Each structure stands twice: as C-alpha cells, then as structure tokens.
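Researcher: Going back to the complex we discussed earlier. I've cleaned up the inputs and rechecked each line, so this should be the final set. Can you rerun the prediction on the complete assembly and write out the structure?
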Amino acid sequence: MNTIAASLCAARKSQSAWFAGLAIAVALWFAAYGQLLPFAQWLVAQTPIKPGSHLASSVEFFFYDTPKVLMLLTLVVFAMGVVRTFFSPERTRALLAGKREGLGNIAAAHLGIVTPFCSCSAVPLFVGFVSAGVPLGVTFSFLIAAPMVNEIALGLLFALLGWKVALTYLAFGLAIAIVSGWIISRLHLEGWLEPWVREVRAGAVDLEDEHLTWVDRFEAGWDAVKEIVGKVWYWIIAGIAAGAFIHGYVPAELLSSIMGGNSWWSVPAAVLLGIPMYSNAAGIIPVIEALLGKGAALGTVLAFMMSVIALSLPEMIILRKVLSLKLIAVFIAVVGSGILGVGFLFNALFS
Amino acid sequence: MKDIKVLGPGCKRCQTTEDMVKAAASELGIAVSVEKITDYAQIARYGIASTPGIVIDGKVVHAGGLPKDDDLKRWLQA
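Model: Rerun complete. Updated structure for the full complex:
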C-alpha cells in the first residue's frame, strides 16, 4: 500500500507522468461528453415520468446540463489555471504603469482576462495599481474586464451557445471595458478617490522569480479546478434547476413578449434587474441558455448577464473603501450605459 | 529571530498563509515573530498588488495566492 502511495507521489512530480495522465483524462473526457445526451434520456426513461410531458422535458434538461456544464467548467478552468501561471498582478502592473490612456486601456482590458486575482484582492490591487502610476482609467479598464470577460463566462458561452456568441461577447466585453476606462480617464476623477489612496506611495517591489516548472503549472491548474469548481458547483446546479424550470414550463410566447426584441424597455429592465443580483458566470449561463431557447432576444439576455456579473453590489461595497460614492456612481453609470448600448446593438443585429 | 509579516485584508487565504508560515518555521526550528498586516494603506506601501503577501525581515518574498511549502522553507532559511 505504501509503495503505491509513494509511486503516486513520485508520479505527481514527474513531467511525463503529468502529460500522459492529461492525455488519458482528455480522451476520457471527450468519450464521456459524447454520451451525455443518450445517458440523460435513458435516465429519464427509467423514471415513471410521462414521456413528452413538461416535467420530462425539465428533468431531461437538468440531467443533461448538469454533467455537461460541470465537465466543461472543469476543462476550461484547468486550461485557464495553467495559462494564468504565466501572469501575475505585479507583472501586469509593471506592464501598465505609466501607459497612456488609449493604448493603456486596451492593454489593461486584455490583461484583465488572463491575470489571476481573487475578489478579496480587489482593493490591494486597485491601490497597488494606482499608487504605482497606472492611470485611474486604465485601472478601471482592468477592473471591468476582469470579472466580465472571465474564462468561465467565455468557455461556457462557447460550449453552450456556439463560437459566434462567445466571440461577440468577448469583443463587446472588451469594448465596454476599454471605452468605460477611457471615459473615466477623460473625466479626470483622480480627486474623487478616497484621500488615503492618493497619499499611498508604494515602494517598488522586486519579487524573486518563483521558478515554475510545467509540473507546477499543471498543479496550479488542478488547484484552480478544486477551488473554483468546488466553490461554484451549487451555483451551477441552482442555475440549471432554474433553467430546467424555464425550459419545461415557461411558455415561449410569454417570454418572447417580455424579453423579445420588440419591446424597447426590455434591455434597460434587464440591466436594472441585474445590478442587485449577484451570481457568477457559471450560475447565470444555464439560465441564459434556457431563456434563449424560449425566444428571448440575444441582446437583452447578454445585457442581463453582463449586468449581473460586472455590476454587482458586493463588489461596490468592497470598492467603497477606495472610491468615493460619486466615483462609484460614475462607474455604474458609464458601465451601465455601455451594457445598454451592447444590448440594443445585439437586438438590432441579430433579430 | 526572524520578523515576518503576512499582508492581507483577512480573507481565508491570508489566514491559511499565516498558518503555513508558522508551521514551516516550527518544522525547521526557526524562531519567528509573525505579524498580520490588514490595513490596506500599509499593505499598499509594501508595493504588492495581490494578497496574501509575505515579508521576511523587511523583504517582500511573495505576493498573491498561497505560497508553496518548498519555497516558504527556502525563504525562511535564507
């Protein structure tokens, strides 16, 4: 027994063992993924639920979507976990410090996608950026892009709704982050920071390189899976249950009359509704998949999703420590208008 | 006696980091005094942009995420 454990331990340190293990895992993943729909149908057939009923349709959606979303999430999170080991907030800051608005906003929005940071780091990150000479607007571009265009949102949109939706989401998410940050730059709102933030002068930090090997990077990917999937799985199941209910019971005519492309007020309503709601991308996407299937307009649904993820009350409360209320109001107004614009544009383009 | 500061606003990871530092130090038999810095302004003055951070004898050795155990021991012995 001890020898097996010891050899497993040794295998975890070996690069070739990781590569071989990953190849097998990916092959198994694809084999299992192809069987999900027949399996869900078989599972529903084993229950006494009448085939073709609303309940059968809901239950099948649930049995199919739950393993599908969890499997996709695992794959995406692992890949992004590995990619993120190549970036760090300190390195990103060094790239952005002293950058001018414009190019700086563009770079910041892109770096926001790949730079790892957890939400409890939002304040140190904000202060760390601003005090090291990253312009306020550029910092905002980073802070808007990071939650909105995250790997979970993109990976799941790609898998559930196709590459067109994922790519447009990426493009518009980046555009909102870039333009909002640029507008905030132009408004010159540095004076609206909390006073202590302006006074902090950070010393330069010279971190020694932590010498990451491929094994370390794969370990980091695996840690990300354990942490993120471990943290969001119940959000996902709640989201899929809501999606399953919509899928089986909510009549398509009702939804398309409320969330369809015809009513002008549906986009602003979706944005307002999204602000107090707090979910992460993983929980909201199954709901979106079901809404779209019922004829909701793409722009309205994406506006809702962006609003839920990017404009969240808990994040505002954290940022209140560094921003004055006026600055938070400007932030919400600028990002909210961007999301509104995207919603209307999408509805116009895709209807 | 090594003077160690763990920088972080007090989230779970920061607590875990502090525990890891203490565990590693006692395993190596190194005497340490561990202090937690939770004030944002003070954290920012060390120049890090992600937490938790670790400062040993005034030098920032780590920022962002949990440290690796091997690294931690190397820093403590340096």
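Model: Worth noting: The two ends of chain A are 63 Å apart (CA to CA).
Researcher: Good, that matches what I expected from the previous run.
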